[in-house]
Structure prediction request, 509 residues.
Amino acid sequence: MISLPRHFPTVVHMLQEAAAEAGDAEALVAGDERLSYAEYLSCVAGFARELQTRVAAGERVAMLMGNSTDICIALFATHAAGAVAVPLNPLYTERELRPVLADARPTVLIHDDAVAPLAVALSEELGISHVIAVGPANRRLTAWRHEQLRLPEPLPSPDSLATLQYTGGTTGRSKGVRLTHAAIATNIAQREALLPTRSGIERLLCVMPLFHVYAIAMCLHNMVACRGCMIVLPRFQPKEVLDLIRTERVTIFAGSPTLFNGLMNHEAFASADFTSLHLSYSGSAALPEELFRRWESASGAPVVEGYGQSESGPVVSFNPLDGIRKPGSVGIPLPGTEVQIVDLATGEQPLPAGERGEIRVRGPQVMSGYHQLPEETSAALRNGWLYTGDIGEFDADGYLYIRDRKKEMVKVSGFNVFPREVEEVLYAHPAVLEAAVIGLPDAYKGESVCAFVVLRRGAATDSDALADHCRKNLARYKVPGRIEIVTELPKTRVGKFDKLKLRENALPR
Prediction:
């Protein structure tokens, strides 16, 4: 029985203690910028006090920001101000952002210089009261680093809502996952029980996007919990990642299959120095066994794979650092977390080891529900269980394996892509009569988006033009990598597109 280590009421309390006990320790590195824990806390306190002049407790603060020290400060400051953080993907197009912002109804929108025109236009359209531009062309949230400020009192309550984390659904509609401070703080302790960090020693390289729940949990909160240092990289560039592992003496690398693959296929990988590397995390998509073995062999450090989703707080299971690690498995459930495989027909009958069914989860880290979506909440949370929509099985040792998805969702480099959304964009093209989108296995991205299109009679267009149309309306990772123009699409007896047949015909024989 693995017991939970001590944990804090909220991540704000966690940062406050880290600054009190390790104020001079390095907390954040981004390029030439370095912040100690004392400076980190002062910046968070300064911006939290500013936010409190614009937002009331419980109101929402949306962030449209890339990786930087600014987004780290903004996330903690929002919580310290008593507000609800709404981190959003800065790569989203106007069409993608509008419904999310309309649903979240933030009082404040913080944005990077790079997305200023889009942020300002949508804020005006949707009536967002306060817009704060952050970046070299405007202002930096590091302005308070030398002021030795205290956090505003009172600190947030564990039972209050901390984050509205937007994720997709089977229909493609983005849903706001409601996570309390207690859920987030508990999940940090649960993860620590299986993957213990070394206090004051760890230096983690974060390339994963910090608007994403994986990077927030496994990088941002993880390092503050152990008073380690997080090295933030704005975007993934293999040569820069490999150089930073050496120069910054990185002990933990948080990656995904796409990142591991990209690093191992770069010419500088053969001569990379992994002397300092103690551990690597893999998340956001399934890690092929070949990548697992190649990375461990080359780096000399273990890589541990886990499983989770926004609705589960996010972490559900991990291969333990001190114990058996099984390639292809996402490990064992975290302490205090129940995981069952249940039948697909009713979702009520637990299945024995070796049988596949839907994964359901119960634990203190699970979401309280979806924002303003009572029917979807009732479907996902039933009798105290979170129904994940993923298909899995346990082996005889209690290790969990993800086998498939109940949903049609395609996972590209760890990002969720929903076929219906891509189909709707294709249907908006005047030449398109029918469109069906599926996911296909991809050695680099995990999965790739493939579209099959039937053109209207007399219409003239090609795959390149359709891809360009998608690029104008979708984030880059959602754009189909393969668009096939066909004369007809296979259909089931009830008139639905037969995507199973499409997938079978598309795969190499």
